[in-house]
Structure formats: C-alpha cells, structure tokens
Amino acid sequence: MQVSLDQIGFIVFIVFCTLAAIQVLYYLLLFSRLAAYKPKQINTAYKEPVSVIICERDEADNLVKNLPGVLVQEFPDKYEIIVVNDNSNDHSKYVIEEFQKTFPALKSLELKQEAKMIIGKKFPLSMGIKAAHYETLLLTDADCVPASENWVRKFQEAYTDDIQIVLGYGAYHKQKGILNKLIRFETFHSALQYFSYALAGIPYMGVGRNLSYKRELFMKNKGFSSMNMIPSGDDDLFINKVATKKNIAIVVEEESQTLSQAKKTWNGWMKQKYRHYTTTKYYKTKHKFLLGLYSFTFSILYPYCIASCLLYNWWIPLSILGFRWLVQGIVFYKSMKKLNELDLFPYFILLDIWMFFYYFITFPSLLRKPKQTWN
Q1: Both ends of the chain: CA-CA distance in Å?
Q2: Residue 150 — φ and ψ, nearest 5°?
Q3: What is this structure's pTM?
Q4: Torsion-angle region of residue 282: left (phi > 0), alpha (psi -120 to 50) or beta?
Q5: Sign of the CA dihedral running 117, 204, 208, 214
Q6: CA dihedral 302, 307, 310, 314 (to 10 degrees)
Q7: 273, 274, 250, 251: which is closest to 262 by C-alpha?
Q8: Hey, CA dihedral for 311, 313, 318, 323, is it positive or negative?
Q9: How far is CA 145 from CA 148, 149, 168, 198, 211, in A?
Q10: What is the pLDDT of residues 60-91, one digit of tens each?
C-alpha cells in the first residue's frame, strides 16, 4: 500500500498538534502555578535562629566580595554563619579570620583531609551541618551574595510548623552579552519548573546556591549517605529524596534571592551544566517521566512544525505554534516579573527556539561519567 505525500503531511501535522498540545498543557496546568503564585501571609509568629552554611575551596576572592552581604543581614533573632574551608590552598583562612574580628557570628570550620569514599561537596556540607547550633539551615555558596539585607528573614518567614524545606532562587548578575542572557534564561527556565512542581505538590529539586531546610530532616534521613558516591546531588538529589507535597515552601521575592557571576565562556558554562545534569538519572521515576516528557516534546516540536509547514497547510501549524507562544508568553511574563528577570521577556521567542538547540547540546551529559570533584 503506497502512502501519498499528502497523507505523510497529515500524519506529521497530527504529530505536531499532539506535541503542541502537550506543551500547552504543561504551561496551563503546571507552569502557570508559579505565574499565579502569591506569597502567603508573613508568618511573624514563627521565629527561630538560623545557621547559614557556606562551603568553599580556594575561594578567598569570592569571600572578600560576597561574604559581607551575608554578614550584614538585618535579622531580629540569633543567627550564625559557618564557613567550611575545605582544604583550601589559598589565603581563605586569613580572609575569614579578618572578618571574624568584626563579626562574632562568623565561625570557621577548617577541613584538612579529604574524605575517602565521599565524592564532591557532601562531606564539607555535612560537617557544616553537624557543627550548626540551630535547627533552621540556610545554604549558599561562596560565589553568591544575598540580593538584600532581608535574605535570612525572608526564608525564616516562609516556615510554619509543617514546613521543613524552603526553595529559593539563585539568580545571576545581569550583564551585557548574549551568553549572559542565555545563562539567565536557562536558569529562569529551570526555576519555572522546580518552583511549579513544588507548588503542584510534586517537588523534585532545589539549588544549593539558595536553599533552606531543617537540621532534623537532614539527620533523620541520614544526610547524604545514600548518594555519597555521586559527585553532585547535595541539593537536587537530597530534595528529591526528602521533599513531599506538605513539607515544602518557596520564596521568590527579589529580597530572598542570591546573585552570582555567570560564566564568562561557553566552555565554562557547558562544563557546569554537564556536571549538574549527571544527577537527573537518579531522580524518582515520576519526576524523570514528567521532566522527560516535557523535554522530549520540546526538543522535537520545532522540527515537526517546520515539516508540517512544508508538507501541510503552512498557516495552520504556524497558528498553533503562535497559540503556544501566546500561552507561554503570558506564563513567562508573570513568572519573570516575580523573579526579577523581566528584561529577558522581549527575547522569549528567540530564547525558546534557542532552548531547542540547548537540549541537544546538553543531552550527552546524561550519558557521561560524573566529574569526581565539586570545585
């Protein structure tokens, strides 16, 4: 039986319609949750001291630039800052000691030996958590600076008696150049997903640049013991393991964000992303399915759109794609406004097309062996 070109064109068009429908459903049913999110009433009654933990290795320059932003927080209750100096060979120790002369809340934990059989950042972070005096933990990195002096307070206000995890947004400084916009859009796109999934009751990750959880939760789940042989995962895999629809909250206000410098080179960014994506294979099955379905339909949407335009009535697939862009644009605009990334909105269609190429570029990271160091 011969299949005509018209029949092939119709089949391709039907496949494209299916892909577009799945994408629109993700935006309407899932990602719209962040767009429509309204912070809950501030919980002023919930007050508990906070331990801020920063792990660093050979990051003296970053400590000089960013640590003051952590030290000058306007926080009404007690809080401490623990900097875990993980076998640094630079002058990190002396930078920390100099800050300690002015800020008594700053504490240093010096690690002088590598942990055997524990790969990556997990051992220094575990030591920092063990040394913490307070139940509420707030994690960030040495290359990050809080966006405001109310950073600690914003996270504390998100807690209630039932909440054990609070996810924050780790943004990047806005700078000139295409690469900066690509990095920030990918970061926003990831945040749109993990915030929306959390709001939908199916949380799957957080980012260690801006993340808070309870010390009791960490101890009860034996810390990172189930993932010690995986270099990354101290943030996303841990949250994937312990988060539930009832024990998690988010903070998205600009005051609650952290800022860091985006990579200056393409190779530097790709190495960073390859390292991060090596953990996704360890996610729970339901998360891998939902994330995989979205990525798969996204990655072949544009090729099928082009094929439909060539083999079918071109204006129909373009109209459907335009409807997807309309829905996407509404969600993006409202979500970008919440995350202070609205300057990216005028380029969202171009950036969306770019993400098609991004998925193919980063796909090999799912098959690669992870790097064995965290810094």
Answers
A1: 60
A2: -105, 15
A3: 0.91
A4: alpha
A5: negative
A6: -50
A7: 273
A8: negative
A9: 9, 10, 13, 24, 13
A10: 999 999 999 999 998 767 889 999 999 899 99
Rounded-to-10 torsion of CA 54, 55, 57, 58: 0
Q: What are the structural domain ranges in the chain?
A: 5-36+285-366, 50-279
As a whole number of angstroms, the distance between CA 269 and CA 102 comes to 36
Please give the full DSSP string across 97-151, using - where no structure is assigned: HHHHTT-TTEEEEEE-SPPTT--TTHHHHHHHHHH--SSEEEEEETTEEESSTTH
Torsion of CA 319, 325, 326, 330, to 10 degrees: 170
Q: Which of 265, 245, 278, 42 is nearest to 157 (CA)?
A: 42
Q: Do 182 and 354 meet the contact criterion of CB atoms below 8 Å apart?
A: yes
Name the residue among 184, 151, 180, 193 with its Cα closest to residue 54: 151
**CA 94/CA 99 separation, integer angstroms:** 9
What amino acid is encoded at 375 in this protein? N
Token pair of 196 as six digits: 């929306």
Q: What is the CATH number of domain 50-279?
A: 3.90.550.10
Q: Is 115 in contact with 39 (CB distance < 8 Å)?
A: no
**Residue 98, pLDDT above cutoff 90:** yes
Is the CB of residue 278 less than 8 Å from the CB of residue 232?
A: yes
Inter-residue contact 339 to 252 (CB < 8 Å):
yes
